[in-house]
Amino acid sequence: MTELRLYILQRVTAFLMIPLILAHVFVIFYATSNGLKAGDILARTQGSVGWALFYGLFVLLAAIHGAIGVRTVLREWADLSRTTASIASGALAALLFALGMRAVIAVVMPGGAL
Amino acid sequence: MSVDRDARDSQLEVRVWRGGDEGRYQPFEVPRRDNQTVLDVVTWIQRHIDPTVSYRFACRVGMCGSCAMTVNGRPRWTCRTHVSKVAGDGKLEIAPLANMPVIKDLTVDMTPFFEKWQQADGVFTGSATRHDDVARIKPDMPARQAADAGIECINCGVCFAACDTVRWNSDYLGPAALNRAWTLANDTRDTANSERLAAISRDGGCHACHSHQSCEQHCPQALNPTAAIAGLKRLSMKAFIRGEIG
Predict the structure, then answer these.
(1) Domain ends where: B52, B85, B108?
(2) Smallest CA–CA separation between B202 and chain A, in Å?
(3) Contact B203 A5 (CB under 8 A)
(4) Which of A29, B28, B166, B183 could be stapled to B147 by a disulfide with Cβ–Cβ 3.0 to 4.6 Å?
(5) pLDDT per residue over B92-133, tens digit each?
(6) How many angstroms separate the CA atoms of B133 and B149, rounded?
(7) What CATH number is given to the structural domain containing B30?
(8) Which residue of A has its CA nearest to B238?
């Protein structure tokens, strides 16, 4: 992928994450100010297609956005070549996505899978 | 106050870089004068103490862009930098510009700096011939005003030396070359804009800029290359959407 495309992809993912971040922060404030416990939250998220899509998309966007940034850091500060930095940041994106999706599945699957 | 104290107070403690990329600072004592520039100090050292000190200057009035050096850690045009402004404590440390290979002492090899102007397609490409009328450019046109805002660059290399991204990424074109590309992108007579946008969108192009704004902070001409680069990012994004560049 060209540098220009990576640049645009990072900006687009940032733009798309803005409403997700605002909703995520709002939910945190709502849950804590209303004294919701883990069980109350899981009761709302488990089996919810909406929350699965919301956090699934969030994880995907964050993995892409963060990995592109880390790729630049690796090139500039670790002096890695373009190819090496791309492989390393690609692996990071996959790891972030896997870890994030594991958490999403844990809170949305009925009965708390994994 | 004793006479000795007066004499000591009127001396500048100057440390000048000697050697190439590897070297050391050499201390000099230089008489302090009213309205003395950093370039005056270096010239005094060369004429009165050590004629082998190498440095570069030409116009001495802030037009030619030859005399930039690192003064007390910051890149500056030395002919227009008053000692009183930068050395209140009477101490000066003068080094060659950063981010370029040192030839000797205070003289750097500016080849990489100027090569990047070429790589950024920083050359005007027109379609008119000598038989055509002079193009009529309205000064209040937004594009002309954008070009005018960046046109007074004197190629001194201060922004290039101040830029973190240049230091970290040897492929990065740097603020001056990209500022030049931006002024040409806003020149309605220029006919090579697609090629230029492709040139500044490659690896090391405008998208590598982190907007630290050191270029704007240090530019002796008070230009804002960061804003120019932001403009190029917008233009390249539009060109990408139109399918002109990939």
Answers:
(1) B108
(2) 6
(3) no
(4) B183
(5) 999 999 999 999 999 999 999 999 999 999 999 999 999 999
(6) 26
(7) 3.10.20.30
(8) A8
Give strand pairing partners of B91. Answer: B13
Give the CATH architecture of domain A3-108.
Up-down Bundle (1.20)
CATH number for the domain that contains residue B208: 1.10.1060.10
B246·A75 Cβ contact <8 A: no
Q: Which tens digit of pLDDT belongs to each residue from B199-242?
A: 999 999 999 999 999 999 999 999 999 999 999 999 999 999 99
Q: Which of B80, B120, B95, B86 is nearest to B201 (CA)?
A: B120
Write the DSSP assignment of A25-45 as a string of letters: HHHHHHHHHTT--HHHHHHHH
Judge whether A77 is closer than 8 Å to chain B, CB to CB. yes
ipTM of the complex: 0.86
Q: Which residues of A touch B205 (CB under 8 A)?
A: 3-4
> Which of A2, A5, A75 comes nearest B169 by C-beta?
A75
C-beta atoms of B237 and A8 within 8 A: yes
Both structure tokens of B85: 């402004």
Q: Decide if B246 is inside a domain.
A: no
Which residues does chain B have within 8 Å of residue A5's beta carbon, measured at their own beta carbons?
Answer: 240, 246
Q: pLDDT at residue B2 above 70?
A: no
Distance of CA B72 to the CA centre of its chain: 17
Chain A residues inside the 8 Å CB shell of B233: 7
Residue of A nearest to B172 (CA): A76
